[in-house]
Specification:
mainly alpha, two-stranded antiparallel ribbon, Palmitoyltransferase, 8 strands, elongated, about 270 residues
């Protein structure tokens, strides 16, 4: 059972980032095609999503927590050792650190590995991860409000005689549309758009709720990277020295580097 779970996790690690990229590109192309223009708001949301995704990945790769062997052997904290040797990545790390089998390195203050972004979410890049979730939700919501009216017009013209509230609502659900396509042989493009519509709504709900949940956890001290104590974070600890200005542009990580807890955190980003 464990072997199957490991294989499934590794398969998800390989495929989920690719699925995220392909779906986001398809969603962007369809949205701009249906609008017959390049909407500035949608472009802004897309850029923010990709930039924050890039920073989550970049910060994850740039984190340095290795230590000289002599310092690690001598380091103690109230009788307990500050450092431990990781047999997987073959170096000393500082507590609390966790090894990620997918990133193949140890991380200090690690929250979880995000399969869809393809890297670990840490205390250092949690703010960018939350923003990536929010902008992913905003992008999906924008696309829903573009694809939805298009499908509405199509269903209005295709079968007016049967048009009522219940019939109209059922047309927007993928299982119903798929059955109609198999039995009646409707156009492929509308099955595709209904699928895109349903998936976009699901992603928007999940990413928005999950982003706000992580935001709440950071402000209430319930983060997973503080397992033995509750330590709340303020806006500047979460998003960096520019605070909520990172909602407009991810300044921390691109313009200004984060440096939390000196050498145990991010350097040269």
């Amino acid at each position: 059972m464990r072997l199957k779970l490991k294989k499934f996790s590794y398969l998800a690690y390989l495929t989920c980032p690719l699925i995220t990229i392909v779906f986001s590109l398809i969603l962007g192309f369809v949205t701009m095609y249906l609008e017959s223009t390049i909407p500035p708001l949608f472009i802004f949301i897309s850029i923010q999503f990709y930039l924050n995704w890039y920073l989550v990945h970049r910060i994850c790769r740039k984190v340095i927590i290795t230590h000289p062997v002599n310092d690690c052997r001598d380091g103690t904290d109230n009788g307990s050792r500050l450092y431990w040797y990781c047999g997987r990545c073959k170096h000393y790390t500082r507590r609390p650190a966790h090894h990620c089998p997918f990133c193949k390195k140890c991380f200090y203050f690690r929250d979880h590995h995000c399969y869809f972004l393809g890297c670990c979410v840490l205390r250092q890049n949690m703010g960018n991860f939350i923003l990536a979730c929010w902008y992913a939700a905003c992008g999906c919501i924008y696309s829903v409000f573009v694809v939805g009216p298009y499908l509405y017009e199509y269903f209005m013209q295709s079968d007016v005689s049967k048009l009522n509230v219940y019939y109209f609502a059922l047309n927007f659900f993928f299982p119903i549309t798929l059955v109609k396509f198999l039995l009646v042989n409707n156009e492929n493009v509308h099955v595709f758009l209904v699928t895109l519509f349903n998936v976009s709504i699901s992603i928007a709900i999940f990413t928005m709720i999950y982003g706000f949940w992580k935001f709440y956890c950071c402000f209430t001290g319930k983060q997973r990277y503080y397992p033995n104590r509750e330590k709340s974070q303020d806006i500047y600890e979460l998003f960096g020295s520019y605070g909520f200005l990172n909602l407009i542009f991810p300044l921390n990580g691109l313009v200004y580097s984060r440096n939390i807890d000196e050498k145990y955190e991010l350097k040269y980003v």
